[in-house]
Amino acid sequence: MTETVTITRDGEIAIVTIDNPPVNAMSFRVREPLRKVLETLAGDSSVAAIVLTCAGRTFVAGADIAEFGRPAQRPDLRDVIAMLEAIRKPTVAAIHGTALGGGLELALGCHFRIADKGAKLGLPEVKLGLLPGAGGTVRLPRLVGPAKALKMIVSGAPVPADVALASALVDATSESNLFANAVAFARDKAASGVASVPVRDRGAQIVGADLAAFDAEAAELAKKARGLEAPLACAQSVRNAITLPFDEALAAERELFTKLVSGDQSRAQRHLFFAEREATKVPRVGKEVSPLEIRRAGIIGAGTMGGGIAMAFVNGGIPVTLLEMNREALDRGLAMIEKNYAISVSRGSLSEDAKAGRMALFAPTTDYADLAECDLIVEAVFEDMAVKREVFSKLDAIAKPTAILATNTSYLDVNEIAASTSRPQDVLGLHFFSPANVMKLLEIVRGSRTAPDVLATVLGVAKRIGKVPVVVGVCHGFVGNRMLSARSDDAENLLLEGASPGEVDKVFTGFGWPMGPFQMYDMAGLDIGWRNRKARGQTAVIADRLCEQGRFGQKTGKGFYRYENGSRTPVPDPEVAQLIEDSARERGIERRTILAGEIIERTLYPMVNEGAKILEEGIAARASDIDIIWTNGYGFPVGKGGPMFWADLEGLPKIIERLEYRHGLSGKDVFRPSALLKRLAAEGRPLSTFVGNG
Ligand code: 3HC
Ligand code: NAI
C-alpha cells in the first residue's frame, strides 16, 4: 500500500502530499499520518513554509462519508485543522479538482489558498443532511463575509476558482503549474518576514455585520427547506460565527453537526449519495466493456419530450439532429427550445453568446436520411406502438451499423419495439422525465437483448448530459410509473369515502412531497390518463367525469381544482366537491373523516409493496436504485431517503400488517403484501439494502 501522506522538499519549502484515491477523502488513514507530518514540520527549523497538496484527480473532496455513523477515531478532522492552523510558518493549500466539505475546511486551516483555474470549491454537506462540521461555518464567513458564506453553505453549490478569487476565498489562481506556483507563493510569504494571520483571527468581515439583513435572508432560505433540518442548522451556525467568539461558535457548530449526523434525515441523504454511485454499476456490464463514441445525437419528435431531450444533449455539448414530421412541427419545436433558452438568458443563468452557441448545435430536419450520421438516436414520438414500430423500422434502414437506437416510451414494451429492427442488441429505452432538460432522472430500460457496450455507452452519455441514470428492466411503466400507478390505485376511493383532493394533497406536502397526487394530475393533464384508460378498457370514477366535463387540469383552468386567470395556484372547487359527494351517494358510500395516517397507508404503502415486487421480479437490481428513481424523478423527499429507505424507517412489520388489513377489506392486488417484504420482515432484515439479481 502506498503512503497516504508524504513530504517532499523544494529547498526550504516542504510539500505535503495527500494520496488517498479516488478523491482523497479525509479518512482516518489520512488524518493520522497527516497529524504526524504536521507535528514534524512545525518543529523543523529548516522548513520555512508548507504547501499542502493532493495527488490524483482532485484536492480533498471531503471527510470520508463512509466513516459517519461509526465510532469516532481521533485525530478527527477538527484536530488536524487546529494543528495546521497553529503552525507559525506560512501554510499554503494548492487546490486542483474539487476542494469540497472537509477538504475546503482543511484548506481554510491554511494561511493561504491558491487554486488551479479549473478548480471548484464548496461546502456541499447540506446535501448530505449535514452542516460543515470542521469549522467551515465559522471560518468561511471570516474570509468571504456572512452573506456569501450563508449562500454557499445553505445551497451547497461549489464556486469556480475565479469566483473564489473575487470573493477572497482564495488568494491567487494558477493558469498552469499549480504546484510550482504554490511553492513560489509560499517562498515569497516566508521571505517577506510578515507574520501570516490564521483565518480564525481575521474578523474584519464579520465585525459589524448587518444581522437584520442576515436574518431576513436566512428566513427566506428557511421557507425553501421543506422540512429539512440541515439548511436551518447551516444558517444558525453561520449566524453563530457572527455573534459568538470563534471557539464558542466552533463548539456550537460541532454540537449541531453531531445531532444531524446521527439523525434519520442525514442517514437518508447519505444513503442516497452512495445509492446514486451504486446505480452506475450495472450487473453484467463490467469495467472491461468499452463504451462507443457518441459525437452526434438524433432526436425524433420535437414535442414536449423531444425538445427537452434535445436541449439536454446540446447542454452537454453533444450536437443534435432534430427530426419532425413536417416543417410546422419542427418550427414549433425549435421556437419552444429558443424560448426556453431566452428565459435562461433573462434570468441571467445563460449569456446571449452561450444561447447562440447552443442554438447552433441543432441541425433541424424532416428527412430521416439525415439521421444516418448520428451515433445515438432517441425517439420521442406519440405513445403508440404502431407509430413507434414504424419509426424503428425506418431507423433500422438508415442508421449507421454502430448506432444506438433508443425509445423514450413511458409504458410500451421495449422488447417489442426492438423486434421491429434487425438489431435488437442496439435498442433500449431512455426514459427521460418532463421537463427533460431539467429533470435529473434517466431510466435506462434494458431490453432482453440489449448489448453490454450499448448500456456502458448510455451510462457515460448520461453523465455527460448531467443525468442520474438507473438501469431497469422491461415491464409496463418500468419502475417509476409502475409504482406511481400503485400509489394512485386507491386514491379515488379516498375521495369517495370522505377525503377531499385538498386534504389528500396536504398530507403529501406535509410528508415533504412538492405536491400531492391531485395537484400532479392537474399539472400533467387529466386527458392523458383518460385516453390511456379508454385504450385499456379501464375507468376512474371521478377523473373520467371531470374529463367528460372538459376539466383536463391546469391547461383548461379546471381539473380536481380551479385555476383562476391563468394562475397555477390550485383553488378548491365546490363543483368538484359536489361531484365527489354525488358519486359516493350513487355508490351507497357513507362519507367520513379520513385521517392522515390512513391516506399514507393507502397510497404510500402500496407503492412500497410494488417496489418490493419489482425487486422480486429483477426489474430493478437493488432497492437503492428505486430510491434514486423516486427522489430524482418524482419528488420523493430526500430527507426520507426514497420509498425503500422510508419503508425501513416506518417498519416492515407495520407496513405488512396494514397492507394485509387493506387487502382483506378491498381484495385489491396492490395491497397483497409481496413475498419479499414478508421474508425480509420475518428475517428482521432491511429493505433498503436489498440487492437482487436484476
Ligand atoms: N467520502 C467517501 N467516499 C467518497 C467521497 C467522500 N467524501 N466522495 C466520493 N467518494 C467515493 C464515491 O462513493 C465513489 O466511490 P465508488 O467508486 O466506490 O462508487 C468514488 O469516491 C468516486 O466518486 P464519484 O463517482 O462521485 O466521482 P466523480 O469524479 O464523479 O465526483 C466528487 C467526484 C465531485 C468529489 C464527488 O465524489 C463528490 O461530490 N463527493 C462528495 C463531496 C462531499 O459531499 N464532501 C463533503 C463530505 S461531508 C464532510 O466533509 C463533513 C465535514 O464537514 C466534517
Ligand atoms: P408530444 O405530443 O408533445 O410530442 C410528440 C411529437 O412527435 C410531436 O411533435 C409529433 O409531431 C412528433 N411525431 C409524431 N410522429 C412522428 C414521426 N413519425 N416522426 C417524427 N416526429 C413524429 O408528446 P410527448 O409528451 O413529447 O411524448 C413523446 C414520448 O415521450 C411518448 O412516448 C411519451 O409517452 C413519452 N414521455 C412523455 C412524458 C411527458 O411527461 N410528456 C414523460 C416521459 C416520456
TrEMBL record:
Q: In which pathway does it act?
A: Lipid metabolism; fatty acid beta-oxidation
Tell me which residues make up the 3-hydroxyacyl-CoA dehydrogenase C-terminal domain: 477-563, 599-685
- Quote the protein name from its UniProt record: 3-hydroxyacyl-CoA dehydrogenase
- Tell me the ranges covered by the 3-hydroxyacyl-CoA dehydrogenase NAD binding domain, including all copies: 297-473
Q: What processes in GO biological process is this protein linked to?
A: fatty acid beta-oxidation
Location of the protein in the cell? Peroxisome
The record ties this protein, via InterPro entries, to: 3-OHacyl-CoA_DH_NAD-bd, 3HC_DH_C, 6-PGluconate_DH-like_C_sf, ClpP/crotonase-like_dom_sf, Enoyl-CoA_hyd/isom_CS, Enoyl-CoA_hydra/iso, NAD(P)-bd_dom_sf
| Keyword Isomerase among record annotations | yes
- The organism encoding this protein is Allomesorhizobium camelthorni
Query: Which UniProt keyword terms apply here?
Result: Fatty acid metabolism, Isomerase, Lipid degradation, Lipid metabolism, Lyase, Multifunctional enzyme, NAD, Oxidoreductase, Peroxisome
Q: Which terms does the record give in the GO molecular function aspect?
A: (3S)-3-hydroxyacyl-CoA dehydrogenase (NAD+) activity; enoyl-CoA hydratase activity; isomerase activity; NAD+ binding
Q: Which reaction does it catalyse?
A: a (3S)-3-hydroxyacyl-CoA + NAD(+) = a 3-oxoacyl-CoA + NADH + H(+)
Assigned protein family: In the N-terminal section; belongs to the enoyl-CoA hydratase/isomerase family. Belongs to the enoyl-CoA hydratase/isomerase family.
